[in-house]
Specification:
Length: about 160
């Protein structure tokens, strides 16, 4: 049971790494109001390295590891951008399904199903990059990250995780 908890914590911690490093390149540093998922702006590897360095600071990653992780994060961001394509058309279809004399339940169900399929694809992509990032780190580094995460969670299993 404890092993599963530790593995789960590691996955969520690495997910946090992905989210943090992804946001480091776009939301506050990139052009446009919507950050990394808006448009085709270039993803800044230096920002990704900075985010990875901050997130992994307790594991003391090497420069080579940070370079690899930044490249993995960039690839993940580029893949995940595709999930946002067509969202305006999706919203328009939802509005159309609600705007008729009767609500188009079949259209709403189809749209829901399509949205879930996109989320499933994104989830698979995130897990794949998490595995790749974990493989860049040594077992000792991963253990350090898990210990740090558990320490931050507090004695009651709650807390603020990776803050």
């Amino acid at each position: 049971m404890r092993r599963r908890l530790l593995i789960g914590s590691a996955v969520f911690g690495l997910l946090g790494l992905t989210v943090l490093t992804a946001s480091a390149c776009g939301r506050h540093h990139g052009p446009g109001p919507h950050g990394m998922f808006h448009g085709d702006e270039e993803i800044d590897l230096d920002h990704l390295r900075h985010g990875a360095r901050w997130m992994l600071r307790s594991a003391d990653p090497t420069d080579e590891q940070l370079d690899e992780i930044a490249i993995l994060a960039k690839g993940a961001i580029e893949e995940l951008r595709g999930l946002h394509e067509g969202r305006d058309a999706h919203r328009a279809e939802i509005a159309a399904a609600f705007s008729g004399d009767a609500v188009d339940r079949d259209a709403l169900e189809r749209l829901r199903s399509e949205a879930l399929a996109r989320m499933e694809d994104g989830s698979k992509q995130v897990v794949e990059v998490l595995v790749q990032v974990a493989e860049v780190l040594t077992p000792e580094q991963r253990a350090t990250l898990i210990a740090e995460h558990e320490k931050r969670r507090g004695s009651h299993g709650r807390g603020h995780g990776w803050h």
